[in-house]
UniProtKB/TrEMBL annotation:
The keyword Nucleotidyltransferase does not apply. The lineage of its organism: Bacteria, Bacillati, Bacillota, Bacilli, Bacillales. This is ABC transporter ATP-binding protein. It comes from Paenibacillus donghaensis. Residues 5-219 form the ABC transporter domain. The keyword Transport applies.
Amino acid sequence: MNTVLRVEGLTKSYGDITVLKGVSFTVGRGEIFGLLGANGAGKSTLLECIEQLRSIDSGTIAVEGRIGVQLQSASLPPNIRAYEVVTLFRKWSKNKAGTGEAEAGEFGLEDLGRKPYKDMSTGQKRRLHLALAVIGSPDILILDEPTSGLDVAGRLSLHSVIRRLKQQGTTILMASHDMAEVESLCDRLIILRDGRIAFSGTAQELTRNAAGLSRIYLQTERSLAGQAFEQCRYEGERQGYSLYSAGNLRDALLELLTTAEQQELAVLDVRIAHATLEQRFMELASAGEGEH
């Protein structure tokens, strides 16, 4: 893999609070690389360090080539039009080829006409910000929640633009909360939890991990809460059922039902549910799971 971004042992603190704790990963040329994590996990700080918007305490960040950035929250003068701002950004960039009208057309902005920025929809603004981020032909494009707030049509439209940029050879580092989006677009991903990497791999690997998890909803005459089990973990009470998580469904069921029989408890109902990819992400992003 031809590495274009390498982060090693990155730490960052704000006063007494350490936000990033030895983060290390690499991104290959032409990859769409996902960055996930719950609020407060350190995603924004990590991106800002890569973008050199924040200093780092220790570690290294090595970037091969130029970076383009689409921020999660950005704004432009209320009365400026799409082709005007694209033309302006081209003048600031070393890449002065083309016209504002041409680039607006490439990103599906030609329908805006003379509409000022203040009258654009969220989706139109997102596409405009993406067009501005790629001016200068960056080698690495950083997208922070690129489809946040968009409707289905807007998300699909932006996804097609992201895929086209990948086909053109652009490396994309994308922060997102949308697991379906990550599964559809990303080649690899990391999940941050409390400033550390809790998972690193492909969406398919995360899916396989999710497929191996099961939820057992057990309803008995009296709850087995407080009982220690080897094959499953008690997760609490849910609407009259005791909830257990298990990696090996067969062994967990055998242990639970055997325990109920030994305590002469009638089993009223048993329900099985397999964990979804979203649930697996939530488990990894929250406390209580070892690092990967």
